Amino acid sequence: MQQAKRILLIGLGRWGANHLRVLQSMPIELFVAETDPVKLNSSGVPQSHRSGDARSFFPIVDAAVVVTPAQSHFEICRGLMESGKDVFVEKPITSTSAEARTLVELARSSGLVLQVGHIFRFDPASVWMKNAIAQGRFGEIKMLRANFSGFKRPRMDTGVTFADGIHFIDLFRFLLGKSPRRVHAVMSNFMGRDGEMDDESLIVLEYDLGGSAPILATVEAGYHVPGKMRQLTIAGKDLSAVCDYNVAQYKIKTFENRHISDKGEIKAMEGAMHQLEFPPEEPLRAELTAFLDAVETRRSPMVDGTAGMEAVRVVEAALESARTGKWIDLANE
Q: How confident is the model at residue 264 (pLDDT cuts 50, 70, 90)?
């Protein structure tokens, strides 16, 4: 009988607690590291498998899941990979694209798995939209619009673009198959925090997919608007869709709306609306299952280090745009 993989979870914060819950239900031998003794001792993990020092477990585990503040990702992941361990790291992969590139090259040269926690890719609704675009069901894509907003406590390690906007920045790359060619952004720091700690962000991304015009995509993120918005809209020539990630099953509505020319006028013709049902599935469980599968099979994960690096590269361009007020060109890599 094959021995269960030894997996180390580093970090038991707000999101780390969800990782703990899912990992405890998986067929693995789980180790946990957390600097807060209260969180550590209440984790339900045996004392022999928990520690305040993550490095004490590096020699004995097969792989690690890193759910710590963003500024710590680079050093922790580099230490793990230099110890020969496969790594799952929550987004953002690192605080800078230069650090991300170092991890990508280290994973490549060492033959290690490096997966980044861009969770929206693992939602069945996202997979449907990607396939529908590839099949041409939308026709020529005109624009994408995404909103990740709501009144909540801000993350203290990054601004809202790095914390939340990056979700849809990565998802656009997943759906369209490439990074934007240029970026423009406006950001605000209403809370007055030090550094680039934006708490409201509006980003415009321009993509060239060879159509009659560039595709414009917008990402709005913030901590101030009441409610909880997790929505993506795709507008195409033949079909449009609205996806609400807050909904458990009926996430997507499609609209067969078209603009037509009639005797020199443009008319808006509303077509059929369809509501699509998806099986209830927890994306976090799906992405952690994918990581364990990559560790077992040695196949490259769907969200590899390069995907994580590209998302950070776009965020960096957005931050530069917000500072300068200019469009920032991105060389496609």
A: confident
Output the CA angle 290-148-219, nearest 5 degrees. Answer: 100
Query: Quick one: fold of 121-282+313-329?
Result: Dihydrodipicolinate Reductase; domain 2 (3.30.360)
Nearest to 315 by CA among 132, 93, 41, 84: 93
For residue 216, what are the β-bridge partners? 143, 206
Whole-model pTM: value is 0.94
Superfamily of domain 6-118+284-303: NAD(P)-binding Rossmann-like Domain (3.40.50.720)
Cα maximum dimension of the chain: 78
Distance, in Å, from the CA atom of 305 to the CA atom of 8, rounded to the nearest integer, reads 19
Total residues found in the chain within this entry: 333
Cβ contacts of 263 within 8 Å, gap of 6 or more: none
CA distance 182 to 332: 10
300-323 per-position pLDDT tens digit:
999 999 999 999 999 999 999 999
Compute how many other C-beta atoms are within 10 angstroms of the C-beta atom of residue 233: 18
- Residue that is written with structure tokens 């914390």 in the block: 163
**CB under 8 A, 24+ apart: contacts of 11-20:** 11/66, 11/67, 11/68, 12/36, 12/39, 12/40, 12/43, 12/67, 13/39, 13/67, 13/68, 15/67, 15/90, 16/67, 16/68, 18/284, 19/65, 19/67, 19/284, 19/288, 20/44
